[in-house]
Design a protein that fits this description.
The protein is mainly alpha-helical. The chain is built from seven helices and three strands, in the order ααβααββααα. The two termini are 14 Å apart.
Length: 155
């Protein structure tokens, strides 16, 4: 019974998350930054200076896949690079003040749409979504294997 309830919850969260993500993508302007660039800037904003390899791992990509993204962001002065003080063979990336401003500007239109949509909800519903957002961040950072969650086959 518990396993079935986990499956239903997982399906409901996945469905709602995908629909909201699609809608938020639709609210992006044609001039918006690429998803990879937004992902890099968002990670650096949340976690601070990060080695390039660790940033790629956090994005579930190979460092080579993000080489061009890093170069573009650096060329636009949205990130800076420095040698890793603990391992001089690696570089640490950091978001610049221009990067913070670009990220905020890119998100502003979607945030405005979302704020209008949230205004139609009750205070309680908004609080539930605020908590759900925090929980989804935790879930996104989780690394359990499907078997470790339920002790059965993958969900």
């Amino acid at each position: 019974m518990e396993h079935e309830r986990l499956r239903e919850t997982a399906a409901g969260v996945r469905h709602g998350t995908l629909r909201l993500a699609q809608r938020l993508r639709a609210e992006r302007s044609a001039e918006a930054m690429s998803v990879n660039k937004l992902s890099v800037l968002s990670h650096l904003l949340r976690h601070g200076p990060t080695p390039a390899g660790a940033l790629a791992a956090a994005a579930h990509q190979r460092p080579q896949s993000l080489t061009r993204v890093f170069a573009d962001l650096e060329g636009d002065r949205l990130i800076s690079r420095a040698q890793d003080q603990s391992d001089r063979r690696h570089q640490v990336l950091d978001i610049t003040s221009a990067g913070r401003a670009a990220l905020a500007a890119d998100m502003a239109q979607r945030d405005a749409w979302l704020a209008l949509a949230l205004a139609e909800l009750t205070d309680t519903e908004r609080e539930v979504l605020r908590l759900a957002g925090q929980l989804m961040d935790r879930v996104a950072d989780a690394t359990p294997t499907p078997r470790s969650v339920t002790g059965t086959d993958a969900l």
